[in-house]
Amino acid sequence: MSHTLHPLRRQRLQRSELAVPASNPTMIDKAAESAADFVFLDLEDAVAPPEKPQARKNAIQALNDIDWAAKGKTVSVRINGLDTHYMYRDVVDIMEQAGDRVHTLLVPKVGVPGDLYMVEAMVNQIEQGTGVQTRVGLEALIETALGMANVEAIAQFGGRLEALHFGVADYAASMRARTTNIGGLNPDYPGDQWHASITRMVIACRAYGLRAIDGPFGDFSDPDGYIAGARRAAALGCEGKWAIHPSQIAMANTVFSPPEAEVAKARRIIEELRTAEAQGKGAASLDGKMIDAASEKMARNVIDMAEAIAARSTAADENR
């Protein structure tokens, strides 16, 4: 193992992330009662320009009126892009009026580390100026060719950055990919055309202690396609996926939750390795297969996720 290590910066359960247009208060209320781990109130793509000021006000009201943490949820706001005049007012108003209630800000179309620097500097100053003690995190959407070309540098930004998300729709447009679908497979490509890009983002996340989240799947009438995409993302190392429709929440929660049999096996791996260790051995066997220190690391990942899910369920039950 290298002497240079970057442990996970912030653990948050993020199997399902429900996208909610902040222009629709009814949908916000429903999101608060949903089974989603994460909810982000969208001020960007899901909100038409004339509606953005009111959507910002709606988001602030929802942050202050709803006890998201008591409902077992992390709540985020996707601000507008740095290339728009909406962005500075998003950050200022949300942080000044609800900075102690929002958990993270989701920054879209991050292309270079300097994009995060600008948002971080604003958040730092507003927290200091208002005396807010809650440390708001940042998450970055990798959804342009520039962002993917710089994804390793973006992941190394540090500061408040907690997670990277793969924004497949804008990424496809940026790459001029031959598709008009939001996610899903192109039959002309032999496999998953997003595989290489997601893998690169996940590598950057795991190297520098960030959570890796897969983005949207647009066809909410195709549950099989959503599940297949989520499984591929999980296989590559993502720990959650967006839900653009409430029907996708349960599917994401299921795919990114380790099955009971997998958790039980992970615990057996730990037990067998402890037994072998007591006997002076560095490896052991389980069900006819060799297990060693690498097996323990994989098993710990499964157990940690299971414990995080259990803790969320307990917290939600206690607040009912």
Topology:
Blueprint lengths: L15 E6 L3 H8 L5 E5 L9 H14 L8 E5 L8 H12 L5 E4 L5 H18 L6 E6 L2 H5 L1 H5 L5 E6 L1 H8 L19 H13 L3 E4 L8 H14 L3 E4 L5 H7 L4 H19 L5 E3 L2 E3 L1 H26 L2
Parallel strand pairs: 1-2, 1-8, 2-3, 3-4, 4-5, 5-6, 6-7, 7-8
Antiparallel strand pairs: 9-10
Could you describe the 3D structure shown?
- It is a single chain.
- With 320 residues, this protein is α/β, with parallel strands linked by helices.
- It is built from 12 helices and 10 strands.
- It has helices at 25-32, 52-65, 87-98, 113-130, 145-149, 151-155, 168-175, 195-207, 223-236, 249-255, 260-278, 293-318; strands at residues 16-21, 38-42, 74-78, 104-107, 137-142, 161-166, 211-214, 240-243, 284-286, 289-291.
- Strands 1-2-3-4-5-6-7-8 form an 8-stranded parallel β-barrel, surrounded by 6 helices. Strands 9-10 form a two-stranded antiparallel ribbon.
- Helix 2 (52-65) packs parallel to helix 3, helix 3 runs parallel beside helix 4 (113-130) and helix 11 (260-278) crosses helix 12.
- The radius of gyration is 20 Å and the shape is globular.
- The N and C termini lie far apart (45 Å).
- The relative contact order is 0.11.
